Each structure stands twice: as C-alpha cells, then as structure tokens.
C-alpha cells in the first residue's frame, strides 16, 4: 500500500540551546514508510558513525524509521523551512506541507 500524506509536527519557534524534536508520521503505508526530512528544500543527512568536519556540523539526529528529527541543542542556524517525505517503495512518495521553524 502506498503511503498517505504524512503529518508533520514542527514547532513554529524554539529557544536557542533547547532540545527540539520534529516528528513525521503516516499510518497507511505497507510496508511501513521510511521518512526523510528536508530543510529549505535540501535533504538532511543521516548522522553516521564516521567523524570528519562535515559530521561535526550536524547538530541533529534523524531517525528514518520513526520519522523524528531531534536537535540536541538548537541554534539560530537551524532556523528554516522544514518538511518530511514518506516513502516505502510503493507508489509515489508523499510530502507534508512546509513549516517554518524560527530559532
């Protein structure tokens, strides 16, 4: 079964230095969907175990299975427009509407 449009929860504003969690969920897809978050239209990278300067700049943890995007300490750099996409390999992937988070 193809996924339905996911429901995204994005706080409209957040305080710098706080923990912020964005969530994304759809329940119709079978097999269960995987979720990909986007910021300002760019796919966010999943944090991997490897080090390097690029990984050091990642201040979030994205869980593709549960659809959560967790910022341990949110910064002004995290301000932007977020949306997520659900896909399970069947039919078209579905996106939720873009929501702006102001830090």
UniProtKB/TrEMBL annotation:
Membrane topology type: Single-pass type I membrane protein
Gene Ontology cellular-component terms listed: bicellular tight junction; cell surface; plasma membrane; protein complex involved in cell adhesion
Family matches, as PANTHER family: JUNCTIONAL ADHESION MOLECULE B
Keyword Repeat tagged: no
Subcellular localization: Cell junction, Tight junction; Cell membrane
Keyword Aminoacyl-tRNA synthetase among record annotations: no
Annotated protein name in UniProt: JAM2 protein
InterPro entries the UniProt entry points to: Ig-like_dom (IPR007110), Ig-like_dom_sf (IPR036179), Ig-like_fold (IPR013783), Ig_sub (IPR003599), Ig_sub2 (IPR003598), JAM2 (IPR042625)
UniProt KW keywords: Cell junction, Cell membrane, Disulfide bond, Immunoglobulin domain, Membrane, Signal, Tight junction, Transmembrane, Transmembrane helix
Residue span(s) of domain Ig-like: 3-103
Family stated for the protein in its record: Belongs to the immunoglobulin superfamily.
Pfam families: Ig_3 (PF13927)
GO biological process: one example: leukocyte cell-cell adhesion
């Amino acid at each position: 079964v193809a996924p339905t449009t996911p429901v995204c929860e994005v706080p409209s504003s957040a305080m710098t230095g706080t923990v912020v969690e964005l969530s994304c969920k759809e329940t119709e897809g079978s097999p269960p969907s995987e979720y990909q978050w986007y910021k300002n239209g760019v796919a966010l990278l999943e944090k991997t175990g490897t080090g390097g300067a690029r990984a050091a700049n990642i201040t979030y943890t994205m869980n593709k299975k549960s659809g959560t995007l967790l910022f341990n300490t949110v910064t002004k750099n995290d301000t932007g427009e977020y949306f997520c996409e659900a896909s399970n390999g069947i039919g078209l992937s579905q996106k939720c509407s873009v929501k702006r988070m102001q830090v």
